[in-house]
Design brief:
18 helices; 9 strands; about 10% strand; disordered C terminus
């Protein structure tokens, strides 16, 4: 079994003696900055002029500086701006202000793994990656709990980078739930694979295809929506709480038999082979290069695909049905409160 670290394993003095700059104030940025502050850490937020998040950070009582000013003032810089903007932001405003003995932290390994950011000699490079969205990182902290996190060290110039990462994880509440050591490569590749094949790409494609199949066969769109999307939360919650076997114990025997016999026909050898190709594209950098090029070009394909997805009938039917179920609106409202960059 891998080792999990908890609060008793962290040396709070290592982070308490640092001046921390949180670069970005979106989902993760707001949670890190507020949790650090409430843990007694000297924190400031780095945002570019005109950022829509400036007012939110200031109204929360945080000091807001430019990214360059924040990096110059701090000796630990946590990069929480979007992956595709980090390299340019780092080169222009962070790198010129890093000094020997500083620490450069990330919550996702993308830019280190694909070498769009390279830290100078004498700077610790580490990762603290909570395994949950920012609003959950913040809420659980205020409730006295925490969200599990991954930590990794890419460069240990000080000899204490691992201990410093653990102390940072402790200050945002992660050690209350448990912290697992990994590497930048493992975190990046598994995270991208999970997003593309299961959690986002695979799931949305499966839901959409199921909905289309039922509607094409003559069933009501509303029935198709309930069966292929709405009830998904029940199954995911059961799996989250009890694992796959626990979920199967909780459903009917009819549902379980269909699961066991028909599921492998949907996720067959052809699908598994395509999963492997997707993983290959992640590992060899093809996906990273494609995504960076897409951003450099102004995101034309991304925008077109996003618009097409939003216009799909399953979204239109779902919006109408969700409007009739106000009890499920709370999560979206919470996300909208913390959105920003």
């Amino acid at each position: 079994m891998p080792t999990l670290y908890y609060a008793a394993d962290a040396d709070h003095s290592l982070i308490a003696s640092r001046k921390v700059a949180v670069i970005g104030y979106g989902s993760q940025g707001h949670a890190h900055a507020l949790n650090l502050r409430d843990s007694g850490i000297d924190v400031r937020v780095g945002l570019r002029a005109g950022s829509a998040s400036r007012g939110k950070a200031e109204s929360a009582g945080l000091r807001v500086l430019s990214p360059a000013e924040a990096a110059a003032e701090a000796d630990l810089v946590m990069m929480l701006s979007p992956d595709t903007s980090q390299a340019k932001l780092y080169a222009e405003e962070i790198a010129p202000n890093l000094r020997q003995g500083d620490a450069l932290f990330f919550a996702h390994g993308f830019n280190i793994r694909f070498e769009t950011i390279t830290a100078p000699e004498g700077v610790d490079v580490a990762m603290v990656a909570p395994k949950g969205p920012g609003h959950l990182v913040r809420r659980t902290y205020t409730e006295g709990g925490g969200v599990p996190a991954l930590i990794a060290v890419e460069a240990d110039a000080s000899g204490k980078a691992m201990a410093l990462a653990l102390a940072y994880a402790d200050a945002i509440g992660a050690t209350r739930a448990g912290v697992l050591q990994t590497t930048f490569t493992e975190e990046t590749e598994t995270d991208l694979f999970g997003e593309q094949v299961v959690l986002c790409g695979g799931l949305t494609a499966l839901v959409t295809a199921g909905y289309e199949t039922l509607v094409a066969a003559g069933y009501q769109p509303e029935s198709a929506y309930f069966e292929c999307l709405h009830e998904l939360k029940l199954i995911v919650d059961l799996m989250y709480e009890q694992g796959i076997s626990g979920m199967r114990f909780s459903i009917s025997d009819t549902a379980e038999y269909g699961d066991l016999t028909r599921g492998p026909r949907i996720i067959n050898d052809q699908v598994r082979a395509e999963m492997r190709r997707v993983l290959d594209e992640i590992q060899d950098g093809s996906f990273a290069r494609e995504w960076i090029a897409e951003n450099d070009a102004g995101r034309p394909r991304f925008s077109a695909l996003r618009e097409a997805g939003a216009a799909h009938p399953v979204e239109q039917v779902g919006a109408q049905l969700r409007a009739m179920m106000p009890f499920i609106a709370g999560g979206r409202e919470r996300l909208e409160e913390v959105s920003g960059g």
